[in-house]
Amino acid sequence: MAALDAAVSECRACPRLVAWREEVATTKRAAYADEEYWGRPVPGFGPPDAALAIVGLAPAAHGGNRTGRMFTGDRSGDVLFQAMYDVGLASQPTSTHLGDGLELRGTRVTAPVHCAPPANRPTPGERDTCRPWLSRELELLRPRLRAVVVLGAFGWQALLPVLAEAGWQVPVPRPRFGHGAQLVLHGPSDLRVFGSYHVSQRNTQTGKLTPAMLREVLTQAAEVAFAA
Fold first, then answer.
1. What is the pLDDT of residues 11-55, one digit of tens each?
2. Dihedral sign for Cα atoms in the order 167, 169, 173, 179
3. Can you tell me whether residue 193 is helix, strand or coil?
4. Looking at the predicted structure, is the pLDDT value of residue 228 above 80?
5. Cα–Cα distance for residue pair 71/52, rounded to 1 Å
6. How far apart are the first and last CA of the chain?
7. How far is 76 from 79, CA to CA, in rounded Å?
8. What is the DSSP letter of 188?
9. CA of residue 147 relative to chain centroid, distance
10. Helix, strand, coil fractions of the chain, as percent rounded to 5
């Protein structure tokens, strides 16, 4: 997994994303003007033998693209890691920067797109170009992986084909995304897939996704992932 993470961080396959992530890292946001931005693809985060995976969308321009860690240094991450801490999946409720002491317990956080996209909207082509990284990550996780929480419809649509390619039996037509959706997939092992609204500011500020709703999904997934 360490070799995969290193390779991900050097990828330059999508010209639009390379240009955007590097422009953001140069111009910066005023609040972070004195910081050195990561400005590269952001690898997954968490133990290589995780039984639970959390799949998002892509790094935020001034979050993961700045700090070098998924969901770190932005308000979406504040919501996610607080909820993970509340249900016992994280060692602390905040994720601010690399080396801040955060450890994830049996859980790995990743995304189908590893570069920050303009307007937080990767194209289908960029998603597909990035797919081999997610495929390889799931292949490495497969021996222990028992549950996946998918944050948002984009991640759901990106993940299901990857799981099908990896040997899990995904129904056709593919099930639709929804908060609270659950799938049981048979294949290399039984895998439970859970849907949750994304922890975007829009969703959390409007109440479409509340901390209680997120904790409920994470708790259900953890019960499956870590069942004796």
1. 999 999 999 999 999 999 999 999 999 999 999 999 999 999 999
2. negative
3. strand
4. no
5. 17
6. 25
7. 5
8. S
9. 14
10. 40, 10, 45
